[in-house]
Structures are given as C-alpha cells and as structure tokens.
Amino acid sequence: MINSHEALIRQLSAQGELSLEDQRAISSISMTLRSFTPGDYIGREGKSVSTCAILIRGFAVRQKFTRLGDRQIVSLHGPGDAINLQNAFLEFPDYDILSIEDCVVSFVDASAIRVLAAERPAVARSLLIGAFTEASTAREWMLNMGRRSARTRLAHFLCEYLDRMSLRRHSADGKYELRLTQEQIADATGMTAVHVNRMLKALQSEKLIKQLGRFLSVPNMAALMDAGEYNPRYLHLPQSNF
Questions:
Q1: What CA–CA distance (Å, rounded) separates 141 from 118?
Q2: Residues of the chain with pLDDT under 70
Q3: For residue 242, what pLDDT is reported?
Q4: Helical spans, DSSP H, in the chain
Q5: C-alpha angle 14/1/161, rounded to 5°?
Q6: I need a labelling partner for 57 at 20 to 30 A (CA). Which of 4, 39, 166, 182 fits?
Q7: What are phi and psi of 234, to 5 degrees?
Q8: What's the pLDDT score for residue 170?
Q9: String of b and e for 197-231 (b: at least 16 CB within 10 Å)?
C-alpha cells in the first residue's frame, strides 16, 4: 500500500513533472488516515468541508441522487486517486463519495493545497490539468450515457474499468476482480441491474469477455474496445503505474 504523501505526489506528477523541491514541499504537509467500510460516505453533497481526500486503498465512487432517490454514479476511483481536490477551492461539493469496499483514505487540509498551488507553479499546473482531465472524462460519460446503445455503453464502461485496474496492477493472470455489483454498474451506465446482467451475458456469448463469479477476463481487448467505441485518450492516463 502506498503512503499518503507518495499517493499525492504520484497523483500530481501524473499531470506534469514535479521538482524535488515540489515533492519535499508536498511531503512536509500533515495528513490524517481514516478507514471506511463498504457503504460508508467519505464525503457528502452540500456539506461544507475543509479537507481534501486521497484514496490510499480500496475503491470508491462519486454519486448523485434525483429528488425521488434514483442514483447516478458519475465516476470511479481507485488507489492513488485524489477524489476531491476541488475542495481546496470550492467549499461545497456537488456529489457524494461512497466507499464500495474497505477503504483507507488520507485527508489533507484544504488550506495546505491552496498554499502549495500559490507557492509552487508546477503543483498549480498539475491541479489545473487534473481538473481538465475530469472534465474530459465527464464529457465521455455523458456521450456514453446519452447516445450509445446498452451493449456499447457496457462494453465502454468495462474498458475504462479495466484500464483503471491495469494502471494499478490489480490483475492476476489476466483476470480482474469486478469490484462493483451489477446494481452499481447499472447506476453508472443508466440501466437496470437486470439489463446489465443480460448485456454481460450477451458480451460473454460474443466471446468478448469471460466472467467467473466476480472475476473478469478479456480474450480480445481490441474487440471489446471496438464494441464499446472505446478510446482511452479522454482519460489522459500516465504511462507509469502504481
């Protein structure tokens, strides 16, 4: 498990080179670790916060609800992700952050992030690029939700999920644990859990994926990417991984 300062340095370095002085400045700030169990809220929509969170272990999602209580998962997050750095500049988050498995999260005071951004141009640049990348990802999710068929939508979602998992070396013999339930996948893709189940079976029948319980493998990634109209360019993923 990576430590708190290393996670923040890697998150910011992924958006641009940081000098040794920048890294030392980041390493000098105070951070606090907290543990969360599945279903715990790491952050709540509309609740004023004074800290930013870096996910050290586990997986979490951002989500929003309609007035009637229907949920939409709007992003996925794994180890090393800074899941709410905008809290350094925006007082009220517009989404919940929910742990979907046991998580360890490091919290840093938002004022410390503001000081780093003010005093360290490379850090400020990385924060800006990170915000641009989130906007790029949101646009792709909007297209996926609004204009793609259920089959294409699910294939695209799985491609992104596998790319994020590959980035963090969570593969065992080419198999990936599908850490989201079918209900959670449904809430991320605008389908029902029943429809997700049906589409997973369809992708299996086409030999685009193999699923055994919670584990997933992809015999032909290029074919799955084609089925999902998937190009990872919008993620702006770093070449190195955790």
A1: 32
A2: 1-2, 167-174, 238-242
A3: 33
A4: 4-13, 20-27, 110-119, 121-147, 150-167, 182-189, 193-205, 221-227
A5: 55
A6: 182
A7: -65, -20
A8: 54
A9: eebbeebeeeebbeeeeeebebeeeeebbebbbbe
Spatial contact of 87 and 49, defined as CB atoms under 8 Å apart = yes
Domains and CATH numbers, the chain: 4-130 (2.60.120.10), 148-235 (1.10.10.10)
CA 79, CA 165: separation in Å to the nearest integer?
A: 10
Please state, in angstroms and rounded to a whole number, the distance separating the CA atoms of residues 103 and 152: 31
Instruction: Give the pLDDT score at 92.
Output: 92
Taking the C-alpha atoms of residue 9 and residue 97, their distance in angstroms, rounded to an integer, is 22
CA 58 vs. chain centroid, Å, equals 11
pLDDT score at 237 = 76
The DSSP output letter for 201 is H
Phi, psi values for residue 175, rounded to 5°: -105, 140
Q: Which of 131, 138, 155 is nearest to 220 (CA)?
A: 155
- pLDDT score for 241: 39
* Residues recorded for the chain: 242
Contact 51, 86 (CB under 8 A): no
Q: Are 26 and 68 in contact (CB under 8 A)?
A: no
Among the listed residues 180, 176, 160, 161, the one whose alpha carbon sits nearest the alpha carbon of residue 98:
180
Percent of the chain predicted with pLDDT > 70: 94
- With CA atoms as reference, report the closest residue to 52 among 115, 2, 101, 1: 115
The DSSP symbol for 86 reads: G
